[in-house]
Amino acid sequence: xxxxxxxxxxxxxxxxxxxxxxxxxxxxxxxxxxxxxxxxxxxxxxxxxxxxxxxxxxxxxxxxxxxxxxxxxxxxxxxxxxxxxxxxxxxxxxxxxxxxxxxxxxxxxxxxxxxxxxxxxxxxxxxxxxxxxxxxxxxxxxxxxxxxxxxxxxxxxxxxxxxxxxxxxxxxxxxxxxxxxxxxxxxxxxxxxxxxxxxxxxxxxxxxxxxxxxxxxxxxxxxxxxxxxxxxxxxxxxxxxxxxxxxxxxxxxxxxxxxxxxxxxxxxxxxxxxxxxxxxxxxxxxxxxxxxxxxxxxxxxxxxxxxxxxxxxxxxxxxxxxxxxxxxxxxxxxxxxxxxxxxxxxxxxxxxxxxxxxxxxxxxxxxxxxxxxxxxxxxxxxxxxxxxxxxxxxxxxxxxxxxxxxxxxxxxxxxxxxxxxxxxxxxxxxx
Amino acid sequence: xxxxxxxxxxxxxxxxxxxxxxxxxxxxxxxxxxxxxxxxxxxxxxxxxxxxxxxxxxxxxxxxxxxxxxxxxxxxxxxxxxxxxxxxxxxxxxxxxxxxxxxxxxxxxxxxxxxxxxxxxxxxxxxxxxxxxxxxxxxxxxxxxxxxxxxxxxxxxxxxxxxxxxxxxxxxxxxxxxxxxxxxxxxxxxxxxxxxxxxxxxxxxxxxxxxxxxxxxxxxxxxxxxxxxxxxxxxxxxxxxxxxxxxxxxxxxxxxxxxxxxxxxxxxxxxxxxxxxxxxxxxxxxxxxxxxxxxxxxxxxxxxxxxxxxxxxxxxxxxxxxxxxxxxxxxxxxxxxxxxxxxxxxxxxxxxxxxxxxxxxxxxxxxxxxxxxxxxxxxxxxxxxxxxxxxxxxxxxxxxxxxxxxxxxxxxxxxxxxxxxxx
Lengths: 431, 423
Prior knowledge:
heterodimer; A: 13 helices; B: Peroxisomal Thiolase, Chain A, domain 1; 18% strand
């Protein structure tokens, strides 16, 4: 094997040969890209369900193209398949329905939603007994009637993975991964590890989330994570701005086809970028907050750089986690100061969440796709709503309008509840 | 590619209806003639569950504040994880824990059932039934004022791992895999492959299930998976449509590179030779057996010789358990001395995500004790041998994991030192 097909440590070089994207900005990478560089927002007032009485009434939602009634399962599956289909088509890999590698997928919580619980409890009419488990006795009796077996996929943890595997014909048991809001990045990391171990030549990675429903919204609201700046919706997500006060929940799916450079070359496929490395460091401080010294997120960045076998000096753009919560953006700034040193004021940083919102489980995959597009197009999408930069932060934020830049190497950050920190180092296509 | 490293099991942490710790499990499961089964057939009738034994699962969680933040499944898992770390001799060893990786197999956590019941009662009232706007206002109001802010953190799949990080300081990396039974074996597979290839040195792997909850039973009843007849062992359920009996359990194992273990003077229970997984479409009868047979060919060299025993993760679900039995008869039992097959789910119940880690722990335990488990009403006409823990002394144990609706896999665990093939 020629030397360039392996990295300096002798590991197979892992490249991306296909990308797909669905976000509130649109369906498809091209549609997203034009709106991203135009500085547009995908955030709107929620119309999917009545929001009376809720503190937060905005989100980045996606409208099903099939007109199917909303459920997190149905919509997350629809957009996962759309993103994956786009990625697989672009890569030109395999034949339809037979993807020559495993699936790594990150999916939202599998759970019954209130309309479904209400359907079950109303099955036999009358008012439910509010006693301790009275409600559940009725639900269980309804379930035993076998009239509600259509609800199965909502409650089964691997149902989205299973359906996607069936559709694309991926090989072996798919891995359904949850590292909270770092999950999308984890799919790419685990695929990279698998390819480096020589266990596969290609893999399909997908992050998907579509959980804008009342409980989905209220959960984050009760954790004080969401902004309540409802009007106008497009101004609500303000990463790194002084007036940021929480994130905007959003839906989306990102997909990439990764394969060894050797496999891509052999079939004449054009690499769109390189997965240079990934790093993961778990935090042990708090369920929703980072250690005050930032050591875990610093550790994730440093492990990613070490895995990519590059120094921090080689990073020329950071695709930030940048949620727009006071806590995250401060800690990310602290960590980047530590990792980039003096260069922190010179390395352009952007948060796609200013435009897309926070796609939660999908975010790492969505932002990996946008990072790859950034390198290919030589344009960094803006961090919009950056009207009032936080003076305490040192970052060179790509404020409000897109910036032309030759970008060869990107650090893409993803942090999640439960002390999950995953960083990817992505590089432009090999020459 | 560099040569693969030998992968050892160096720590076990077990909690279930049979008690706490590996010794309690070995003692209970090897007691003859009849192994103990703890069943509660009344509390969740018509379903039975194997309830948690009288175990203080908060013993290792010193902070009351931390305990309050966790659901029972999380406390179970955190406890078992702590036992495994102690057993491996790394509990409190910051230098090791800081680079120890964590892989957890998990479903969802526990809902607030009283809250759900209250809201459902409101939603079935006349006003809500006749006016969707009223229903929406009621729901939004109830959620905003009634949901506990921390509840979601108790439900999130990856927060079992998050709590293990907080309580035990396992902070190298942390991954959670979802997908019922097979996610438990996939978690082991991920750890084994990373250790074997040098991507990791020491990994804590496991899962936890609290079976004593109606929301979980509801999910599995919708899946059509639960056994609601009087208790019988897993092999005897097929004629009545099959089904599984959930068992509360948590199992964590420390998986470590042999050289890493030897450097720190740790002993190994057993060596994990291989883990293989797949997922067939299950569209036609026989597909599961065929998939298992195909997986077995990947282990063929190791399966060929020496005393073998099978620890089956069979759940009792149809057709998974019957197809697994045909696989064992036709591909493992055929043409060799009788192979002892034991389905530990008949004693412990089915612990879904925790089931494969539990099985792997029991396999490692048996190999380190130089014995095996006596039968628990295994089918007499099937591959079966040995009536006491000393009648069968396998040098390798095949662990099976067949999901109740999807996913199948095998793991081969070998005796350290005694695992050399014989002629």
